[in-house]
Specification:
By secondary structure, this protein is of the alpha+beta class. The protein is built from eight helices and five strands.
Length: about 190
């Protein structure tokens, strides 16, 4: 089915009879304004004149371009897990002490995550505090960022990363641990 992955699994969440109706609307290339009126109204300029089939094709093309299916597999296979640099508790303490910086997602590559990050669906942590941003996880969140911009109204819920708008484009940002030489140290006897 075309509506899968981080689009919110639209088809997988609708019951049988409704799914059959949805598929008929897809086959008939129904206007998006009739099929998804609330999304159409919220983003009328973007989806003006769009049909359901056009929307599905754009989603499909986005997933294919980023090979999302493969990224989802890799993110949850041991050989592709992010490398651990510090234990999650140490990363959390660094976060609480303010030994972090907020960076754009591309700038997080090779940096230590200060927070766990997850998209919903599927609602599973993809990177844990103390792990290194990179590989399939970074590419997956980059694909999510592109999808958020390309397909307004279909953004997944993201936790542990932050969406900020700059120059008319939504960007994903995340907290990473500052390099050791940039961190302040606790004074003798000082506690968290």
């Amino acid at each position: 089915m075309l509506f899968t992955s981080f689009s919110g699994s639209l088809v997988s969440r609708i019951p049988g009879a409704v799914q059959v109706r949805f598929e008929k609307l897809l086959e008939s290339d129904a206007p998006l304004a009739e099929v998804l009126p609330s999304i159409y109204k919220q983003h009328e300029e973007r989806y003006a004149g769009y049909t359901l089939r056009q929307l599905c094709q754009e989603m499909h093309d986005l997933y294919a371009r980023h090979n999302v299916k493969q990224l989802q597999k890799e993110m949850f296979r041991k050989e592709h897990f992010p490398r651990v640099s510090m234990n999650p508790q140490e990363a959390n303490y660094a976060y609480l002490r303010g030994e972090v910086e907020l960076v754009r997602l591309p700038d997080a590559e090779g940096r230590i995550a200060a927070e766990g990050a997850l998209p919903y669906p599927p609602g599973v942590l993809c990177v844990v505090p103390g792990e290194i941003w990179g590989g399939a996880v970074l590419r997956y969140f980059s694909a999510l960022e592109e999808g958020i911009n390309l397909l307004p109204g279909f953004a997944p819920e993201l936790q542990g990363v932050y969406i900020e708008e700059h120059d008319g484009r939504k960007q994903v940002w995340c907290y990473v641990i500052k390099p050791r030489d940039a961190q302040s140290t606790l004074l003798k006897g000082e506690k968290l």
